[in-house]
Amino acid sequence: MHTVWKGSISFGLVNIPVKLHAATEDKDIKLRQLHKKCNNPIKYQKTCPHCDEEVKPEDIIMAYEYAPEKYVVIEGEELDRIKKDQEAKAVDIINFVKLEEIDPIYFDRSYYLSPGDGGGKAYALLRKSLTDSGKIGLAKIMIRSKEKMAVIRPYSNTLIVETLHFPDEVRSLQEVPNVPHEVQLSEKELKTATLLIDQLTEEFEPEKYTDDYRTALMNLIEDKMKDEAGVEVKGRDNVVDLMKALEESIKRTKGAKPPVKQTQRRKKA
């Protein structure tokens, strides 16, 4: 399992060397965009509208737009320095809270936490302490150049890190349009709705749920492959033939004697 982050987590005087691994993966089916005329994949180029030319990676700088068309340029060395300063810090558990106190709107991504070299006992201690107390640890962590709030909690026989959004990253309720207020509902309507909820209530079993859209799309792709309904890229036959010709020429010339120069032939004559 790929390591996303490596460092240490501390609570009190206990320091635990740990590694972070992504707990989820994107199962979306990636579709390519092709040119309808020749079926070649579309390429995207970074261009400057002022210079009307393609921009190479080494010609790109980073900046923050603090006003319309006004920027503060941030040098790469400055970004690297801030990143190193933050990543060098051990992840300190700030305090402990109950999981139910955190609204799901704050949750972002999940990561498995494994102990580093020599950290097995301290890892087990934290896992057992959290399980017995019914609490989770609240901390800050630096992942991929971005500081995140995070909770550390037991998950089966493992510890898991759940990154959280900061409060200012959660949009205000006032921005939600057309929310009804003080709507009169009859007692019969409420009882009927409650009865329906009760009838559809059961224990959560994640294995029962599947991505129906992804399954249908994959079935469609497989059917098209069986029916040989695929398309081929146009305009590349000459390139392939040329490569074959070059490779064949190289094979034929291997071990062959170098050609005799014309001057050498004249001398022998």
From TrEMBL:
Keyword vocabulary terms for this entry: DNA damage, DNA recombination, DNA repair, DNA-binding
Pfam families, sorted: Ku
Domain (Ku): residue spans on this chain: 52-181
Protein's GO biological process: DNA recombination; double-strand break repair via nonhomologous end joining
Example of a GO MF term: double-stranded DNA binding
Keyword match Transmembrane: no
Cited InterPro entries: DNA_bd_Ku70/Ku80, Prok_Ku, SPOC-like_C_dom_sf
UniProt signal peptide: none
NCBIfam families, sorted: Ku_bact
Subunit text: Homodimer. Interacts with LigD.
Protein family per UniProt: Belongs to the prokaryotic Ku family.
Record-linked PANTHER family: NON-HOMOLOGOUS END JOINING PROTEIN KU (PTHR41251:SF1)
Functional note: With LigD forms a non-homologous end joining (NHEJ) DNA repair enzyme, which repairs dsDNA breaks with reduced fidelity. Binds linear dsDNA with 5'- and 3'- overhangs but not closed circular dsDNA nor ssDNA. Recruits and stimulates the ligase activity of LigD.
Protein name: Non-homologous end joining protein Ku
Phylogenetic placement of the source organism: Bacteria, Bacillati, Bacillota, Clostridia, Peptostreptococcales
